[in-house]
Amino acid sequence: MYYIVDRGSIKRKLKKNLTLDGFMMKPKMRLRKDFIEVKEIIILDRTLTDNVLKMQFQVAFKRLFKMVMNIMESDDASESDMNLALSEIERTKQVLKDKYAQVISQNEYRRMRRKVTILEKQLREKIIIQQRFREMMWSMMQTRQENLEEKKGRGR
Fold this sequence. Notes:
This protein is mainly alpha-helical. The protein has helices at residues 46-73, 79-100, 106-153; strands at residues 2-7, 10-15, 23-25, 41-43. The chain is 63% helix and 12% strand. A hairpin with a 2-residue loop joins strand 1 (2-7) and strand 2. 8% of the residues are buried.
């Protein structure tokens, strides 16, 4: 790991092999001339880690929530849209389990997991309602078709 310190025209390189136990993240910053390029940050403080991951989760959850709400409010949502949303929910749950569970507090992890589970339940209910509606419409169409065939079959 290298640290490059640039003060005016003096450039120094410091090489330190530190093994720090904490949460490593890669910041997403736009580079400017007066900024130092940071490739990775290791956060050692547990409460700061909780807060950073909470903010990251909120961004992902808002995106997921908008996707599910668009499907819930739409009457003509396709099955592929619903499956896409379900796969996004599963992916978010897996990220929570793999990335967040070991780093954040248990209470925060349970709260995040509960939010995603509620969204999943609502979406699954919508899928079931839509399937029942399709089955009902199909049976009505079949019944109507049979009635029309019976009327045609009767002669003079």
